[in-house]
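Objective 1.3, modelling of assemblies. Example input:
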Amino acid sequence: MLLGSRRPEDRTDLGLPVAGLSETATHAGVLVNATPGAVSVELLHSIGAPALAGALLIDVGVGLSDDFTELSHPNSGLGEQIQEAFPLTPVVKTLCTMDSTVMIAPDALEVVPLPAGR
Ligand SMILES: NC(=O)c1ccc[n+]([C@@H]2O[C@H](COP(=O)([O-])OP(=O)(O)OC[C@H]3O[C@@H](n4cnc5c(N)ncnc54)[C@H](OP(=O)(O)O)[C@@H]3O)[C@@H](O)[C@H]2O)c1
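Predicted structure (tokens):
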């Protein structure tokens, strides 16, 4: 796994290799967009459509303004905007309503049995 950053030289404490966004995009066939939704499309444009073409892009971003009071893509959605901007990159929208603590440790959730008959 390779993490992408705008400033990889500053990201020395993440416990995984870190590279620039373009290098990361060309590293693997499966990419994850985990950037603030208001800037995700712009960031992906900075990488460029050719570098993203053919990769599967998993988009967990949430399309809200920095203060979480406004939709960044009214009457649309972040995943939809990314897919329109990068038609050669299949986009899967998922996990955006799940807290990151659950993303990294799903087994930590308490299992509550369904009532009998359901
Ligand atoms: N945290 C959660 O529990 C959670 C749950 C579901 C969905 N999400 C969504 O997942 C995405 C990432 O969440 P997060 O909590 O990891 O967000 P974050 O810490 O605000 O941002 C993640 C990374 O994006 C880069 N970034 C931050 N601000 C930026 C800006 N203005 N322009 C460009 N890049 C910027 C930074 O990396 P570099 O500085 O290294 O480039 C930052 O470490 C968001 O869209 C969030 O809404 C989060």
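Residues 22 and 48 are 8 Å apart (CA to CA).
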